[in-house]
Design a protein that fits this description.
11 helices; alpha+beta; 527 residues; seven-stranded antiparallel sheet; six-stranded antiparallel β-barrel; 29 strands
């Protein structure tokens, strides 16, 4: 059994857990203000008498002690226990060949090779036979992670993978007090969870910061529970922004080099004003330990999700109803774009807001609700942040012209997480290096092409042809060339010829492969 990408690491039952990443937006939670914090002044800028270029060197921090004293009372340890069923454990034993249980991720995924969820994991041990005999056995999975208090009323933020499937959850405060916790709600798509504890103790809370204001090179301080060592503090800088780990459509991680390890999951990363700008969630690690590359969920993404969970118990997202793909440089050339940008509509879902508004397959979405769509990941986050029922302008490039289409966004459904006989015979398109055939009844049977699929079948590919580099192969169906639907090899050749006459260096093909449709850009050979 293969574990889905992004499964939690709390125990060996990785094959039984799922996590899909996604986007959210909404209103921000307001925590209790914190006191004065340590800040750092920029040094004066010196300039030579010869008016040499200005050199700005940031001041090194003298100490983070003031900041740490302020925020650590709000950082907690999160401990969990789980009692998997016998059938679940048998499944997991089978998955691991009956030996020691290991984490498993889909082959080829980034997590399979590099990324390891790092909440502190103890390999469960089997208890002895009950009553001194018999073959029965119980198993308990223990896990630990981190979290932080966002409201003195007892609301605590952590990662979903820390608490998922847990039977019991306890929170240990900075002073050692242990309190039972309950789950208010979770969001698997962003790996976030909100807990609630009840206590008469006066709790310290921290505020959300503005992750959009965090710049590469800014200081960041991480506090958490690595390997069960609660209250551990590390410091570093924001190394990069907008990292996509391919764990979901809303990936927008901050990359930090403050050392974080297993057990830091769900813990906060602070800016120098003592506000939370990230929730530590994953590390890049060939070995499992910190190598200085960690990833945190941005606060501006997290606070809107947490606000919805607190108010509604779940997260509601907008739905456009298109399947999109990245515009590559080759596609941009074929589409007549000056540069590769936007999100290419590969398919429009049935009964979707996009279909009702008139969005078409092949449109390139370059703007949404007044905001630019420069890359693929921009659009899902913008749509998810839109309230259901709101009408937004969507800017598209269609047949070389820019159009604006008004779309009424809907609520994301629960299941969604976007010729003559001669012509019909086999033909070879030397321009593309493909052997083509019309979809005759015999060809459909031979290649198992459903009746509802229309186009031209690829029956072979030339080893030195341009199509070889794109992954197009036998069994694929060419649905469209450029903006024109095709049903015969001669129609394909006609559209390729037209592209060459228009001085295009590449041509767009819409390919249907076993029911999935996507665009590919094929370079055209020079005359």
């Amino acid at each position: 059994m293969k574990t889905p990408l992004g499964s939690d690491d709390r125990g060996p039952r990785t094959g039984l857990r799922r996590m899909t990443a996604a986007l959210l937006l909404g209103t921000a939670l307001i925590g209790v203000p914190v006191g004065a914090v340590l800040t750092f002044d920029r040094p004066a800028v010196a300039q030579s008498q010869a008016e040499a270029p200005t050199s700005i060197v940031p001041a090194a921090p003298g100490s983070f002690a003031g900041l740490v004293r302020q925020v650590t009372p709000a950082v907690v340890n999160v401990s969990t226990t789980e009692h998997p069923s016998a059938s679940q454990m048998a499944d997991e034993d089978e998955d691991n060949g009956g030996g020691q249980m290991q984490r498993q991720f889909p082959p080829g995924s980034p997590f399979d090779q590099f990324f390891k969820r790092f909440f502190d994991e103890q390999q469960p041990g089997r208890r002895g036979p009950r009553g001194g005999g018999g073959g029965g056995s119980d198993q308990v999975i223990h896990g630990a992670g981190s979290g932080f208090i966002i409201d003195p009323a007892g609301y605590i933020v952590t990662n979903n993978h820390v608490v998922k499937d847990a039977d019991n959850i306890t929170v240990t405060l900075n002073d050692g007090t242990v309190i039972p916790a309950k789950v208010v709600g979770t969001d698997e798509k962003t790996d976030l969870a909100l807990l609630k504890i009840e206590t008469d103790k006066k709790l310290t809370a921290v505020e959300w910061g503005d992750s959009d204001a965090a710049q590469v090179g800014d200081w960041v301080v991480a506090v958490g529970n690595p390997f069960g060592l609660g209250g551990s503090v590390t410091a570093g800088i924001v190394s990069a922004r907008g990292r996509d780990l391919h764990s979901g459509p809303f990936d927008d991680f901050l990359q930090i080099d403050a050392p974080i390890n297993r057990g830091n999951s769900g813990g906060p990363s602070f800016d120098t004003s003592g506000k939370v700008i990230g929730i530590n969630s994953a590390i890049y690690s060939p070995s499992g330990g910190s190598v200085g590359i960690g990833f945190a969920i941005p606060s501006n993404l997290a606070k809107t999700v947490i606000a919805q969970i607190r108010d509604h118990g779940s997260v509601q997202r907008g739905w456009l109803g298109v399947q999109i793909q990245q515009v590559t440089p080759e596609m941009a050339e074929a589409l007549g774009l000056e540069k590769a940008k936007g999100a290419l509509v590969a398919d429009v879902q049935d009964d979707s807001p996009a279909l009702k508004a008139g969005l078409h397959q092949g449109d390139v979405i370059t703007g949404y609700d007044g905001k630019p769509v420069n890359q693929l990941s921009d659009l899902p986050r913008l749509v998810a942040d839109t309230a259901a029922g709101k009408t937004v302008p969507v800017e598209v490039l269609r047949n070389g012209k820019t159009e604006t289409i008004s779309v009424e966004i809907a609520k994301l459904p629960g299941s969604q997480q976007v010729a003559s006989a001669e012509e019909n015979g086999p033909a070879v398109d030397d321009q593309l290096g493909l052997s083509l055939s019309a979809l005759t009844p015999k060809v459909r049977r031979e290649f198992s092409v459903p009746d509802e699929v229309e186009g031209v079948l690829v029956t072979g590919i030339r080893e030195d042809g341009p199509a070889r580099e794109t992954g197009v192969g036998p069994g694929d169906v060419i649905v469209r060339v450029g903006s024109e639907a095709v049903k015969t090899p001669s129609e394909v050749a006609k559209q390729v010829k037209a592209a060459k006459e228009a001085d295009r260096n590449a041509v767009m093909l819409l390919i249907n492969r076993q029911g999935d449709q996507r665009f590919v850009a094929l370079k055209l050979p020079k005359a």
